[in-house]
Specification:
The chain has 182 residues and is α+β, with helices and mostly antiparallel strands. It has one domain: Aminopeptidase (3-Layer(aba) Sandwich), CATH 3.40.630.30. The chain has 6 helices and 8 strands, in the order E-E-H-H-H-E-E-E-H-E-H-E-E-H. Strands 1-2-3-4-5-6-8-7 form an 8-stranded mixed sheet, with helices on both faces. Helix 4 links the parallel strand 5 and strand 6. The longest helix is centred in the first third of the chain and has 15 residues. It is globular. 32% of the residues are buried. Bound molecules: coenzyme A (COA). It holds the Pfam family Acetyltransf_3. InterPro entries: Acyl_CoA_acyltransferase (IPR016181), GNAT_dom (IPR000182), N-acetyltransferase (IPR051531).
């Protein structure tokens, strides 16, 4: 697969982040309604944190060429990010190589179907790469993200503590389910 992939959908372009995107990423994660559902849950306070996050993205994406942390553009403007990355196993549990899909969009861009459209593109990419299943994990009260999972046809696994050392509501989509639908 291409080292610098550009994925296009009807309305979106997904591409790798560059350091030029730090202002956008800072704006995104300085918003409590976005930061609340990511990592420590604390909004970013300094632009340098966004630069650091972009720098760490290759490590987060791991070695598989299909994986990545993607900047999402609509109409030539950044609107969010979408991930296809290895999901970190909780302590004491051996990782079984599970792959996660995820999304964080700017509040101004919510309510357009962009997260679902980007998620669908990454589902296609992940299954084309041969991953047998894709996972999404959400805070138990993150109903907007859970709605995206359902729109993608994912199965609700309920609360699981297998990843991120936390109890999270997990969703899974099997490649076979998609193949069976076609
Ligand atoms: C989770 C998140 C990405 C969901 O964004 P979203 O815009 O609600 O999700 P979708 O892209 O699926 O958009 C669906 C909405 O767009 C509407 N919509 C408008 N035009 C549409 C179109 N052309 N096609 C599809 N849906 C469209 C749908 O009706 C739906 O509206 P509703 O929320 O009123 O029901 C967003 O809330 C977010 O970034 N939250 C903060 C970060 C976060 O929680 N990340 C996930 C961590 S697990």
């Amino acid at each position: 697969m291409d080292e610098n992939p550009v994925i296009t959908t009807d309305r979106l372009t997904l591409r790798r982040f560059t350091l030029d995107d730090a202002d956008f990423l800072f704006d995104l994660f300085s918003r409590p309604e976005v930061a609340r559902w990511s990592g420590s849950g604390t909004p970013m306070e300094r632009r340098e944190e966004a630069v650091e996050r972009i720098r760490r993205q290759p490590e987060r994406a791991g070695d598989h060429p299909a994986c990545g942390v993607f900047a999402v553009e609509a109409n030539g403007q950044l609107v969010g990010m979408a991930l296809l990355v290895p999901i970190p196993a909780s302590a004491g549990r051996t990782s079984e190589g599970e792959i996660e899909i995820g999304w964080h969009f700017h509040p101004d861009a919510w309510g357009n179907g962009y997260a679902t459209e980007a998620g669908r593109a990454l589902v296609e990419r992940g299954f084309a790469a041969g991953f047998p299943a894709l996972y999404a994990v959400t805070d138990s009260d993150n109903v907007r993200s859970q709605a995206v999972c359902r729109r993608l046809g994912m199965t609700d696994l309920g609360l699981r503590d297998d990843w991120y050392d936390r109890s999270l509501r997990a969703f899974r989509l099997d490649r076979q389910e998609i193949a069976a639908d076609q």
